[in-house]
Amino acid sequence: MPAQPEPLPVTIDRFSPVPLYHQLAEQLTSAITAGWVKPGDPFENELALTKRLGLSRPTVRRAMQEMVSQGLLIRRRGIGTTVANQMVHRHAELTSLYDDLIGEGRAPSTQVLSLQTGVTDEPAAVALGLDPSTPLVALVRLRYADDAPLALLHNWLPSAFSDLTAEQLQTDGLYAVLRRRGVRPALARQSFGARMATAEERRLLQLRGPSPLLTMTRRAFDSEGGPVEYGAHLYRSDQYSIEVLVHER
User: Fold this and answer.
1) pTM over cut 0.85
2) What CATH number has the domain bearing residue 195?
3) Exposure winner among 63, 90, 135, 175, fewest CB in 10 A?
4) Residue 49 belongs to a domain
């Protein structure tokens, strides 16, 4: 039989105005971030928590679902609930994934799967405000975080960047490479979504079985409105989230 997960310390105050499910989710989250359990460890299930803490099943279920939604826990049929791998929490800002990983203390690395020049791609050219027949530079990269595959990155650049090399892109992020050439993205339009991974995407990202992916497309331009890059990126949903700051207009 698999080892039973260690019960994490939880104290429920039934006289507090804070909802019981939120108290539970907050304390379990703190225990995870404090390192009481490690990524991949089995996690105490709803029934065990219900009996141990004297809470109702719906209360525990809501707390657990909140943690799943935050990417802290993963539920798999036949396996149960486990602690998720460390997630990348990315702000919806004009930054690169490489820089975000560095900022979170992670170790990014890149495998360049394809780098082609003179490529004609009508949707990418139109997205960059160019004639549909304009030749572009097309590259496909697999981005790793701490030696684990995190994202599959497709990018198209104007032909002015035809001298980019795979070596440059393997040792640094695309935006850092562009900055060294005096090119700085100043404005971008980003769209987010989700879809199921194809068999090839599952292979590259080391996913098992049907798996959802987060998607992002981005059109970036410099301060004068010149095209910089068009990207269509895919992220493992169990290791990546996007934060958006919303304010009243």
Assistant:
1) no
2) 3.40.1410.10
3) 135
4) yes
